[in-house]
Amino acid sequence: MHINNVLIYNFRNIEKLSLELNNGINIFYGNNAQGKTSFLEAIYICGTGRSHRTNYDRELIKFNESDAHIKLDVSDEFSDFKIDLHMNINKKKGIAIDSVPLKKLGELFGHLLLVIFSPEDLELVKGSPMIRRRYIDMELCQISSIYYYKLQQYYKVLKQRNNLLKSIVKNKDLIDSLDVWDYQLIEYGIDIVKLRMEFIENIQLLAGNIYRDITNGNEELKILYKPSVNENNYESKLLKNRDRDIILGSTNIGIHKDEMMFYVNGFDLRSYGSQGQQRSCALSMKLAEVELIKQVKNRTPILLLDDILSELDKNRQEFVLQKIDKIQTIITTTGSYDIISQRLKNSFVFYVENGNITFEN
Ligand code: ATP
Ligand code: MG
User: Fold this and answer.
1) CB-defined site of ligand 1, < 6 Å
2) Rounded to 5 degrees, what are φ and ψ at 21?
3) Residue 260 Cα distances to 12, 146, 159, 189, 219, angstroms
4) What is the pLDDT of residues 199-213, one digit of tens each?
């Protein structure tokens, strides 16, 4: 799939912008703090409904403005559609597809398929478990509407259960009502564990192959899903933790505590991996995502590469550039874009300065 046109008003430091994009490679270059990431972020929000960096819409609206708009014209393998996104300082954001407003943000998933590569990807390996769970959730939501639904229900039930736990401290009689919430939590939780298991097995296969290629067959990457509960022990674990949950006023076991582990040649990558190995792992995960989306959705996602090429050595740069062949890609880079533009002859080049973007060829 590809984006044909982008319109942006008052988004971060971009006041007004209208651009036509190339179906292949698009290079956005410019100095630091000029608007390159802002441009990518505007596109990313149209795919997922949220920023890849912040949860606060007001940070995304241009200073001293109350509204921001992003409009995209997209063609995929089957149809053309328009995405219209409106943010307001005081309201929830509104999104429309082909002028039909979406009732829920979740309905946006699966239309504009994106994979973003950013310097923060390394956190996928090095960062907290929350970052890995967010990765799993965001990717699965893009490819599975069932997953999105189950996850939403799970968190609704979790919130109710936590509210009840807090009330039980004051009124012990309420403890009997916990069973109802536990039952639902287990039902949604188990389905989510199964979908996560299947997803990580698929990603593990694809990323394993890519990692092997990057390291010329010298290193073996294994990705392991560590669910904190399973079908057989969910109920008993919830019961066992009940007293503790009541004291703490929150649910301390469940899929919101799941973890994902990475091993290279049998050792734990988080503790023992070099920076380069960790980077290769993150890169393999992202490239695997591209493959998985192709397989599951029968469509090619659009790639957003935020200033990542300069961080890769020559071999890995080549590897990525060869993988993005025939995929619409938006690349941002500071200053020198020589290597990329030489390698990618038919690319469109844009210069970014102070929130203005100009087409150069
Ligand atoms: P770098 O090469 O350093 O990554 P960049 O070109 O990607 O730079 P952006 O992250 O797009 O830069 O930021 C562009 C500018 O927008 C920065 O000066 C930033 O401080 C500014 N900015 C961020 N949020 C807003 C906002 N809500 N309103 C106006 N300007 C903003
Ligand atoms: Mg940037």
Assistant:
1) 12-13, 30, 32-38, 59, 61-63, 307, 334, 352
2) -105, 155
3) 34, 21, 24, 16, 19
4) 999 999 999 999 999
The reported pTM is 0.91
- pLDDT tens for each residue of 119-166: 889 999 999 999 999 999 999 999 999 999 999 999 999 999 999 999
Alpha-carbon distance of 228 to 251, in angstroms, equals: 13
Cα(150) to ligand 1 centroid in Å equals 36
β-bridge pairing 221-226 and 259-264: antiparallel
Structure-token pair, residue 174: 């309420």
How far apart are alpha carbons 343 and 318 in whole angstroms?
Answer: 9
Q: What residue owns the CA closest to ligand 1's atom 16?
A: 13
Beta bridge partners of residue 226, listed in sequence order? 259
- The pair phi, psi for residue 13, each rounded to 5°, is -90, 10
In the predicted structure, residue 38 carries a pLDDT above the cut 70 = yes
